[in-house]
Fold this sequence. Notes:
With 57 residues, the protein is an all-alpha fold.
Amino acid sequence: MSRTEFNHAESEWYAMLDERNRVFDRYLQGMRAGNITTWLAAVILFVGCCLLASWLI
């Protein structure tokens, strides 16, 4: 392998690692959004149940 081929392979390797990091960051952002949405839905459901219970009593 010549020096030029090695430099090209190395640059492709780092580009692939950068792309993997970007994809993983998007995955983590999606997981955080899902967790926030789940907690928000649980809070809204809890508050709604409390309001309904207080209205029925």
